[in-house]
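Morning. Coffee machine broken again, so started the prediction first thing and wrote up yesterday's gels while waiting. Chain of 175 residues, entered below exactly as on the submission form.
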Amino acid sequence: MNPMDTLIWLLNFPAAHGYAIVFIAGFSILGLFAMSVRGATPGAGLRAIREREGLLRSDARPRGQLRSTVVRVVFRILAFLMLGSLVIGILSLTGVPVTRAYIHDNGRPTTATLDGDWVTFTTADGVEYTVESNFFTPAVYPDRDVSFASGEPVVVRYLPSHPQAFVIDSEQTPR
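Came back before lunch.
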């Protein structure tokens, strides 16, 4: 398994679902960053009240700091992943081929059929895949603006180790 193919496959999800990713990431980033600040962990507010009211001994060891630190780090990592997904989604919506060029250059060609927004093709292993190529972020490269009629055969290039990462080759037509 090629590590670069795996990375492109992972990056291809937000690139292929740009419209949805922009909305999901846009609404979730603020909440994730808010959960990653120091006072947002469960029990932090209660501890602050107990300290203020003098109900906590001064020599008492604070409990749960490791757990709250782990929670903050996890939410911070998720926030940065969503921020990266947001950037990839916006680039994909504006027509930048974030992953499409790599898939086109390194993918294995095969013939596929279109049925609306769905592309059906069979890999060299004999496994049939039906994957989405939606209207807002079409899986077409190098000419993103070309249109194909439904039911028309097209040439698809897919990554052999991850066939869900594919592009419709707009330069080739099956003969």
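The mean pLDDT is 88. Going to sketch it on the whiteboard this afternoon.
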